[in-house]
Amino acid sequence: MTLNSAQVERPSRKELGRVLLETQSMTSDWAPTFAAVDRAAFLPDLMWPFDMERGTSVCVDRRTDPGTWYAAADSDIPIVTQWDDGKHTGTAPGDVSTSSSSMPSVVYEMLLDLDLDAGMKALDVGTGTGETAGALTHRLRGENVTTIEVDRVVSARARERLCAAGLYPVVVMGDGFAGCAERGPYDRILATVGLREIPGAWIEQTRPGGLVVAPWGTHFSNADAVVRLVVKDGKAMGNFTRPVEFMKLRAQRLSRPDHDDYLATGSMNDADTSSTTITEAEFVTGRYTAARFALGLRVPDCSQAVADKRDGARPVWFYGLSDRSWACVMFRDAEKEARVWQSGPRRLWDETEAAYRWWVAQGGPEHTRFGLTVTQEGESAWLDDPSQLVRPRD
Predict the structure, then answer these.
(1) Are 192 and 246 in contact (CB under 8 A)?
(2) Which helix (H) or strand (E) holds 159?
(3) 8 Å CB contact between 97 and 91
């Protein structure tokens, strides 16, 4: 696995480092770590870089196309390294991406959020390829870093790559949701998997004044944001720092709602109908805008699915996660108002429309205006101040 000096000093890799510094995704004190911990050393021969423009994953094999492989490794893009919990075979993308190498800009921004000092103890949840654990190890020394991964094969391969790179954190195979109490307490906990609930075990295993940095969101969509929580007096509180999309912690992963199961409880012909003046351009926003994140905070136990646009029409579906309520809004290019269908105990579009109009009335707040408080009673999201709750406490 050890790369020769010509590979480590690749021009494309130097360019990536320059971009990370110029965009302030990485500060100069992290530059030695970037130089020492080469992403390429932690990637498998067969991988699936994500095409950011087309929104698709493409297969690249180092054994047959090393030039394209290294170009992807040295790009600021996410790369899928496992599909379907390892059950996938072949070169075509699988159904669900279950392990990956995150965008270098996101990795180093999250490392900055940790505000690390020498001698601190850190827990890395979601070992994946091992690169993030390697960066923490380079900064803090191996005896101070514990990394935990639920997938036995992924964990073993990461251990091999870390050892080959001369980096020796404590590698644990287990469920990161439970943390790793025997190695705690920690000054910092970093998760590189998406969460729908901050585990209480992490709060318990973090020293007073310590930090938990993790991607967090709701089941409404994949629109997560990184939250930076300060642990004190048995609770954790902090603001969100930036939007992200991460694979979900396996213990909190949501199965896709079965559309046919919902429609079986009430067809569109039997549904209540109405219309909305909200336009497609307003509602169907980009991947990293705050609207979807805010809607998830205001509309609990709901999953949204935005369909592809065909012949000038785009349906957006909403599925209740605690019952079989559903809703559909149909945006059409030629119509000023969109038609709405709703069925079940809840009126999911009414809830969503009210949440959207609330977000607009607040000035369309970005992620950084939102925050999260975690206590033994549950989680509460807020806007600007912990007293201004966005949704009730769980």
Answers:
(1) yes
(2) helix 152-164
(3) no
102 classed as catalytic: yes
H-helix or E-strand containing 47? Answer: strand 46-51
- Indicate whether 221 and 140 sit together in one domain: yes
- How many Cβ atoms from other residues are within 10 Å of residue 256's Cβ? 10
Q: Answer yes or no: do 164 and 200 share one domain.
A: yes
Q: How far is CA 244 from CA 109, 111, 198, 223, 277, in A?
A: 11, 14, 16, 7, 29
My answer on whether 107 and 149 are in the same domain is yes
Residues 50 and 18 in one domain: yes
pLDDT digits (tens, 9 = 90+) for 292-309: 999 999 999 999 999 999
* List 25, 101, 102, 343, catalytic entry: 102
Instruction: Work out the pLDDT band at 8, boundaries 50, 70, 90.
Output: low
Q: What is the model's pTM? A: 0.93
Distance CA 55, CA 36 (A): 31
In a 10 Å sphere around its CB, with 0-12 CB exposed, 13-18 middle and 19+ buried, how is residue 316 labelled?
Answer: buried
* Contact call for residues 123 and 189 (beta carbons, < 8 A): yes
Average confidence (pLDDT) over 164-174: 97
pLDDT, tens digit (0-9, with 9 covering 90-100), for 104-139: 999 999 999 999 999 999 999 999 999 999 999 999
